[in-house]
Design brief:
Elements lengths: L5 H13 L1 H4 L4 H12 L8 H13 L7 E4 L2 E4 L6 H11 L2
Antiparallel strand pairs: 1-2
Length: about 100
């Protein structure tokens, strides 16, 4: 994704999460193919370092599902452990 266009990235991420059940069990080759064919996306060489950092953090935290949200060191895997309304409630409760 082109992070120089944050609005487009946001819209793509919303759509991808809405359709997560279609691709979440796919391997990385299949996901790359889907992103290229359905969204016209290609790997962005400028984003490789950021991608590697994100992957390293996910591995360190043992993240198994995206999105996973950490609030006050408490882990929530969406939608496996809670739905969108429950996630909103957890965020509200965590805010001062």
């Amino acid at each position: 994704m082109d992070y120089e266009d944050p609005q487009r990235v946001y819209e793509l991420m919303k759509e991808l999460f809405a359709k997560q059940n279609r691709w979440s069990e796919s391997d990385s080759h299949s996901i790359k193919k889907l992103l290229a064919e359905e969204y016209g996306l290609q790997e962005q060489p400028d984003n490789i370092e950021l991608s590697l950092q994100i992957t390293a953090e996910a591995m360190k935290r043992k993240v198994k599902m995206v999105p996973t949200v950490f609030i006050n060191n408490k882990e929530f895997q969406f939608p496996a452990e809670l739905d969108a309304d429950q996630l909103k409630q957890e965020v509200k409760q965590a805010l001062p």
